Amino acid sequence: MGTIKTKQYQCKALVISEILHTKRAELGLSQRQVAESVGVTTASISYYESGKRTPSLDTLILLKGALNLSIRDCVGIIEAVSNGIQKD
Asked: Considering only CA atoms, which of 7, 14, 9 is closest in space to residue 83?
């Protein structure tokens, strides 16, 4: 991966991770609580929040409900994913 692509990946991953982490913190939920609600592992939530992975569309739909994400939040995540970030 070239320097430009690496920087683009890091920026997009930060958008996703920031949205997910911020919403979870606002609700006072642990990663474990969100993971159980969504049906993924706690490690997956940690990866999403650290920018190491991005949620699939199916997982995003579940996260929307669990974290009370707005459509705007989801669009930001979908745009970042569709612009080249590797999905889980």
From this structure: 9
Query: pLDDT of 37-67, one tens digit each?
Result: 999 999 999 999 988 888 888 998 899 999 9
User: Within 13 A of 60's CA, how many CA atoms are on the CB side?
Assistant: 22
CB neighbour list of residue 77: distance below 8 Å, 6 or more residues apart: 15, 16, 19, 20, 54, 55, 60
pTM: 0.74
Q: How many helices (H) and strands (E) does the chain have?
A: 5, 0
Q: What residue type is assigned to position 32 of the chain?
A: R
